[in-house]
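STRUCTURE:
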């Protein structure tokens, strides 16, 4: 039996607003240098970014257009995952192709996962019946306090915590760690919706995602 596959969607945006600072993570996907620095002591992350066997995953990416509206293209995948870095705030949050692809994965019974600023890709997603993907859900993501602490509150196009709260509505819940930068992962919708708060939550998000896709087999 083949191992479950996860479609990882990377941002194409490479600048932080008007600051001139790089961000990001088809073609060569921009990688957020601050995320690399934050993970300098994480051996798993360092092995991934430096390995010649994994570099093609972010240096030879495929456009979303190859997957959108193409059931046979997404059939091999059990989940879709959106990593962090500020980039998704600028392109994936408002991308019609990204929104449609998320909807297609969700309505096919697959898992949807994201971490840090990755949940920005979910804030505008609506399902075929017109309801918001996140309405009434439990989620997390990069918090307002964390954005303030990195000095980018006035730079980003919106505050992710605020947008997520707007999307989930009064029946949902935005959850976060007791302290900024603490690990926090929220799993909802029977294990199919997985969100992580910040870089410290990445490993736990990965573990929750493995559990979700394994359960589909």
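SEQUENCE:
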């Amino acid at each position: 039996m083949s191992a479950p596959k996860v479609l990882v969607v990377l941002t194409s945006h490479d600048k932080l607003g008007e600051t001139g600072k790089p961000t990001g993570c088809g073609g060569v996907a921009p990688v957020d240098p601050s995320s690399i620095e934050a993970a300098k002591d994480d051996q798993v992350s360092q092995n991934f970014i430096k390995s010649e066997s994994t570099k093609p995953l972010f240096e030879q990416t495929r456009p979303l257009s190859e997957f959108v509206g193409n059931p046979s293209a997404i059939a091999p995948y059990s989940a879709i995952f959106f990593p962090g870095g500020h980039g998704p705030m600028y392109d994936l949050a408002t991308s019609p192709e990204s929104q449609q692809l998320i909807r297609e994965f969700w309505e096919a019974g697959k898992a949807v996962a994201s971490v840090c600023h990755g949940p920005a890709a979910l804030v505008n997603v609506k399902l075929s019946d017109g309801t918001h993907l996140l309405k009434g859900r439990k989620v997390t993501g990069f918090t307002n306090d964390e954005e303030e602490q990195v000095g980018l509150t006035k730079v980003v196009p919106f505050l992710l915590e605020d947008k997520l709260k707007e999307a989930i509505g009064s029946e949902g819940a935005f959850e976060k760690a007791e302290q900024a930068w603490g690990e926090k992962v929220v799993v909802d919708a029977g294990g199919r919706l997985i969100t992580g708060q910040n870089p410290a939550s990445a490993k736990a998000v990965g573990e929750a995602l493995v559990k979700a896709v394994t359960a589909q087999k």
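REMARK: DSSP finds eight helices and seven strands in the chain.
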